[in-house]
Amino acid sequence: MPQHDTTAAVETVAQSPAPRRERDPRIDAFRGAALVTIFVDHVPGNPYELFTLRNWGFSDAAEAFFIMSGIAAGLAYSGAFRTKPFLEAAAPIWKRSWTLYVVHIFLTLVGVALFAAGAAYFGLPELLRMNNIGPIFDKTMASLVGVPLLTHQIGYVNILPVYSVMLLVAPFAIRVAMWRPWLLMGCSVLVWYAAGLWRLNFPNFPNPGGWFFNPFSWQLIFVIGLLSGVYMRRGDRFIPRQPWLFALAAGFLVLVLAWRYLPGLGEVLNHQMSLLGKAGAPFHVVSHDKTFVAVPRMLHALALAYVLSAIPAIRRLCGHEIASPLRLLGRHGLLVFATGTLVSLGMQVLLVAAPTPAIVAWLVLPVGLVVMLGAAMIAERRRDRAAEAAKAAKAADLVARIAPRPGTLRAPGKPAL
Q1: What is the distance of C-alpha 275 from the center of its chain?
Q2: Is the pLDDT of residue 7 over 70?
Q3: Rounded CA gap, 166 and 216, in Å?
Q4: 3-state secondary structure the chain
Q5: Interacting residues of 332 by C-beta distance below 8 A, sequence separation 6+
Q6: Cβ contact 327:352 at 8 Å
Q7: In degrees to the nearest 10, what's the CA dihedral of 242, 244, 247, 252?
Q8: Per-residue pLDDT at 70
């Protein structure tokens, strides 16, 4: 092959990568919005928390986080189970689960260090009684066992353990989802119902009780997202668009708003729920409990997710330039979550220590956004550079494979040297 043909072929391959499945902008945009909301809610007492999702219904950003995490897992991992052996397809998921565990341990240790440093520097021993940190100093040996076993979790640093558990079982769930999706859904509902009925939960140690985010209950939210992601991977919807279902979901969202803010209606409806409880209905059907994901919370989260997913304009808005900061945050979800968690814990310390906490409270959102966006931008640049390096390496490898080797060139009419 002439040298100029070789160069042209290399440039063609390097510049024209294989077509990739279009990334749904809603996943990154909504995940970014959830991360910002979680950050704001993790600094109690700031003025911005009055506008987060939990003020508009029964659920909050935690449910949104698990729905989108399930969708992302279904989209990212289900394809491998069609072409690879089970263990090979499952390995990246389990590796991600381990990464979440390591990040959780890191956040726990740094979080405790932040409050300990604040207590020492500002002379505020009460900081050591916040966020379930006390047992680490009062029952140090037992807590040092509990932290790595995930049986002792400090406040506001307790969402990654359940996510890690979800990813441990996700390969099996994906395999069932691709074979019998409604079987997976039915089993998930049964586990959720049994957990609330018999108070099944992962144990705490050294404190009594169980995990704040009960894996047996929260798995249902994750599985619904996972099934949605598996269907989206093949260009379909797990729950199809239906006008009557959209009207029902939207109507429920309006009812919830009225339930919360219309004078008198909330008292009446809560009283009816109480009567159902006294009549024998399980508590996780008639309460608003978060640990066991009670029915009102779950229905609100699912109705909101369905309505947003069924409006075409929402997808266009999420893909618009105005939503690019949210998409940037969402593309680097774990890094942004970890960064936001540490900033929020630091802001909690400053709110207690500051002589004028109102100033610190107003700084919560701008400071958090600057730090989280800065971390995401750095990660994005590093990812782009790595992609360019991989592209260049691929081109160089192609040159090495198809370029003529020394000693094989010959002039016309002459034998090879």
Answers
A1: 36
A2: no
A3: 10
A4: CCHHHHHHHHHHHHHCCCCCCCCCHHHHHHHHHHHHHHHHHCCCCCHHHHHCHHHCCCCCHHHHHHHHHHHHHHHHHCCHHHHCCHHHHHHHHHHHHHHHHHHHHHHHHHHHHHHHHHHHHHCCHHHHHCCCCHHHHHCHHHHHHHCCCCCCCCCCCCCHHHHHHHHHHHHHHHHHHHHCHHHHHHHHHHHHHHHHHHCCCCECCCCCCECCCCHHHHHHHHHHHHHHHHHHHCCCCCCCCCHHHHHHHHHHHHHHHHHHHCCCHHHHHHHHHHHHHHCCCCHHHHCCCCCCCCHHHHHHHHHHHHHHHHCHHHHHHHHCHHHHHHHHHHHCHHHHHHHHHHHHHHHHHHHHHCCCHHHHHHHHHHHHHHHHHHHHHHHHHHHHHHHHHHHHHHHHHHHHHHCCCCCCCCCCCCCCC
A5: 375, 376, 379, 380
A6: no
A7: -110
A8: 96
In which region does residue 385 sit, left (phi positive, over 0), alpha (psi from -120 to 50) or beta (all else)?
alpha
Backbone angles phi, psi at 118, to 5 degrees: -65, -40
The number of angstroms, rounded, from the C-alpha of 20 to the middle of its chain's C-alpha atoms is: 23
Structure tokens at 126: 């009460």
What pLDDT does residue 354 have? Answer: 95
* pLDDT number for residue 417: 44
With CA atoms as reference, report the closest residue to 16 among 381, 380, 394: 394
CB 221 within 8 A of CB 227: no
Residue 54: the pLDDT is: 93
d(CA 328, CA 74): 20
pLDDT tier at 401 (50, 70, 90 boundaries)? Answer: confident
pLDDT band (50, 70, 90) for residue 13? very low
Region 331-349: mean pLDDT is 97
Predicted confidence at residue 402, as pLDDT, reads: 81
Nearest to 95 by CA among 77, 78, 79: 77
Cis peptide bond prior to 206, omega within 30° of 0: yes
d(CA 221, CA 230): 15
